[in-house]
Structures are given as C-alpha cells and as structure tokens.
C-alpha cells in the first residue's frame, strides 16, 4: 500500500482562487491528494487579491480537506512573493512534512531552507518567469533567475510543463527534469444568463480572451488586429491586472473608440463558466506561456481556439485549432476575419475540441505522476 505523506505546498498566492494558473494547479493537486488520504497544507499569501478589494479577506482554516495557513506578506510590488515565500519556506522547513512542493521559480529561491532541514523538495517550474516583461529588469529578474539556479541545485525533482522548458533546463544546466503537463476536467456548459444581463452577450456573438492583463499575453496585438476586423461580433477581454495597472490603462486607451470591445475585469465562478460556454472563438495570442490552463479549459468547453504558434500553445491544440505566427498583427487580423466569415470551420473545431483535450490531459493522471515523484 502506498505510504501516506504529509505534504506542504507554497508559491501560490492563495487557494481557493483563480488569480493565476499556479493557483489552479495547486488547488487541483492538493484536493486530489487529500482524497487519496495524504495530508496537505498550503501556505497562502496575505494581502490584496488581483481581482480587486472585494475578493480580499481572511483565509479559511481548510478547503475540501486541505489545511490552509497564511504567512506574513509585504504588500509591495516585487516583495509580496519574496516575503511570503521566505516565511512559507521557514514554516515548511520546521514543520513535520515529508515533502515540500514549491511552485514557480521565484519561490524556489528559498528551496535550500526545507532541503537543509531534511525535507524532500519538489519544484514545479510553471514557466520561465524571468522572461516576463514586468520582471525583466532590476532586483526581480535577478531574484527569479537565482530561484531557477537554486531549484537546479537543491530540488530533489524539478517538474516542467512543456518540452521547450525541459530542453531549456537540459541545455542550460545539464539538469534532468520531469515533464508533467497540466490537466483539465470536463465541465458542464451553461446557458448565457449572467453574461446576457451584465454584458448584453447572447452567446456565440463574441470572441473571448481570458487571462491576466500582462504584456506577454499578446493583448496589444489582439486589440490592434480586432479593430480592423469587419464583424458585428464583440471581443471580450476577461481578466485582472497583475501588478500591471499602467498596462491595463494602455489597453483601455487602445480600445476606447471601439464599442465592440468589452473588458470584464477579473471573473470566476458561474460568470466565468458562462463566458467559456458561450464563446464563438477563444483566442490566446501570447508571446510567452508556461502551459496555458485557460487554453485547456477553453477547449474543454468545446471552443474553437485561435492561438499564437509558440510551442506551449501549438502543442496543446495540435490540429484541432487555428494558429498564427506570434507577434504578427496582420496574420492575427487575417485569422480573426477568417473565423468571423467561416462559421462552418469554427463549428468543425468546436465539435472535436472537448473530447480531444479531456482525453489528452487529465488531473487524476497529473496527481498520480506527481505523487510518484514525492515517493
């Protein structure tokens, strides 16, 4: 019989939450591990939620059997993750855990603390975060790069989400990593009720982007391209700022003369389900991704997906979606016009998307593979 483990996780902002892909991964893994009779404690940040002050609040003591603990957090750009990760690493190191699972490169800076204190340390690299525009300069970039190096030195196992990142670690550090992609669950589609009331959306009348409003998601290209597309369909941009308020304002300024473009802000729950369920096309024009959970989710709802041709997106959709060369505004405009003018092609993609993606990626399999590394 498999040994029962006492597991700690940190690196996420907080669970339960949809503030980013890391939070979704931690929640999915932790809840499933508890169902398998393991003990899991997740160390959450305190402080501001990216969705806005209305989502701020105290963390519950547990969630679906997962123990939740908050750690001190310095509420300042660049220091929130650092401070929370430091205190979480200390508590994990001195706690009675078999395994400490650290999520993301920045928090992995402190991987040496639980390792020195005798814990088995696993690090998941969700993406090469030092490449993200908001962290490219100054202290943050150096800290994240050192976090990557510390993971290479101190982690017993490193999990990566894509072949491209696996090759990066092999070529840069000569370090073997384990490729365990993210998973997805088959959802229940919803009728357009809340989105009709709130945004006037009827269903199949909008193109959806969902994600954090950060430069590497390709939103500048998307808005510039969509403004020149001849269609009555709307563009719905759903997501909140992530220490990128000035960029968010830039996007609003770009879109201010086009009434077809709707910004919803941060969404979750039934509203999110309805947006996924009733989109005509989902688009993700990113320059940089780790493994885009929003893309997996969009396909699980049966969406036709139009994405940039970076490997992290192209490898997910394979031949079940549409691609354009990353950063190419004219190519993106052409593909947007194509989907607006060719419903038959869109619905052909929709017909096969959900079965394909749910068969390819499964959270139960991800959990089993991760537990095998713990042991």
Key features of this structure:
globular; 375 residues; single chain; 6-stranded parallel sheet; 17% strand; 8-stranded mixed sheet; 14 strands; alpha/beta
Taking pLDDT < 50 over at least 5 consecutive residues as the criterion, the unreliable ranges are: none
**3D shape:** globular
Helix proportion: 40-55%
Q: How do the SSEs run, as a string of H and E?
A: EHEEEHEHEHEHEHEHEHEHEHEHEHHH
Which class do the helix and strand fractions yield? alpha/beta
Strand order of the largest sheet: 3-4-2-1-5-6-7-8
N-to-C span? 12 Å
Mean pLDDT: 91
Rg from Cα: 20 Å
Proportion of residues in β-strands: 15-25%
The total count of helices amounts to 14
Number of strands: 14
Largest sheet report: 8 strands, mixed
Q: What's the SSE blueprint?
A:
Elements: E1 6-10, H1 21-35, E2 39-45, E3 62-63, E4 66-71, H2 80-94, E5 99-103, H3 112-116, E6 120-125, H4 138-154, E7 157-160, H5 163-173, E8 178-179, H6 194-199, E9 206-210, H7 219-227, E10 234-238, H8 245-255, E11 261-265, H9 269-277, E12 281-284, H10 293-300, E13 304-308, H11 311-317, E14 322-324, H12 329-341, H13 343-360, H14 363-374
Parallel strand pairs: 1-2, 1-5, 2-4, 5-6, 6-7, 7-8, 9-10, 9-12, 10-11, 12-13, 13-14
Antiparallel strand pairs: 3-4
Summarize the structure in words:
There is one protein chain. This protein is an alpha/beta fold. The chain has 14 helices and 14 strands. The strands form 2 sheets. The chain has an 8-stranded mixed beta sheet, sandwiched between helices. Strands 11-10-9-12-13-14 form a 6-stranded parallel beta sheet, sandwiched between helices. Strand 3 and strand 4 (66-71) form a beta hairpin. The longest helix has 18 residues, at 343-360. The radius of gyration is 20 Å and the shape is globular. The mean pLDDT is 91.
């Amino acid at each position: 019989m498999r040994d029962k483990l006492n597991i700690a996780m940190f690196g996420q902002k907080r669970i339960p939450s949809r503030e980013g892909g890391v939070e979704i991964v931690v929640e999915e893994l932790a809840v499933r591990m508890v169902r398998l009779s393991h003990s899991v404690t997740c160390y959450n940040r305190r402080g501001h939620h990216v969705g806005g002050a209305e989502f701020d609040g105290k963390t519950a003591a547990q969630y679906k059997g997962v123990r939740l603990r908050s750690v001190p957090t310095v509420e300042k750009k660049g220091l929130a993750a650092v401070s929370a990760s430091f205190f979480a690493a200390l508590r994990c190191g001195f706690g009675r855990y078999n395994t400490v699972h650290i999520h993301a490169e920045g928090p992995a800076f402190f991987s040496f603390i639980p390792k020195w204190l005798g814990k088995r340390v696993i690090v998941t690299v969700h993406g090469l975060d030092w490449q993200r525009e908001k962290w490219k300069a100054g202290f943050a970039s150096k800290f994240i790069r050192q976090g990557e190096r510390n993971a290479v030195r101190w982690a017993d196992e490193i999990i990566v989400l894509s072949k491209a990142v696996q090759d990066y670690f092999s070529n840069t550090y000569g370090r073997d990593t384990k490729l365990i992609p993210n998973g997805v669950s088959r959802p229940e589609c919803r009728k357009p009720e809340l989105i009709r009331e709130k945004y006037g959306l009827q269903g199949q009348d909008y193109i959806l982007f969902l994600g954090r409003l950060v430069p590497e998601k390709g939103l500048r290209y998307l808005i510039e391209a969509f403004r020149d597309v001849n269609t009555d369909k709307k563009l719905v941009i759903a997501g909140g700022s992530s220490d990128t308020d000035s960029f968010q304002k830039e996007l609003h300024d770009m879109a201010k003369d086009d009434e077809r473009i709707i910004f919803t802000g941060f969404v979750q729950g039934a509203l999110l389900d309805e947006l996924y369920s009733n989109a005509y096309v989902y688009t993700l024009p990113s320059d940089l991704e780790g493994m885009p959970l929003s893309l997996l989710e969009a396909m699980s709802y049966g969406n036709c997906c139009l994405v940039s041709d970076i490997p992290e997106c192209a490898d997910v959709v394979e031949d079940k979606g549409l691609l354009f060369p990353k950063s190419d505004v004219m190519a993106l405009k052409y593909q947007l016009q194509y989907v607006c003018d060719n419903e038959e092609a869109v619905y052909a993609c929709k017909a096969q998307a959900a079965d394909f993606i749910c068969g390819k990626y499964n959270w139960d399999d991800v959990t089993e593979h991760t537990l095998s590394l713990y042991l």
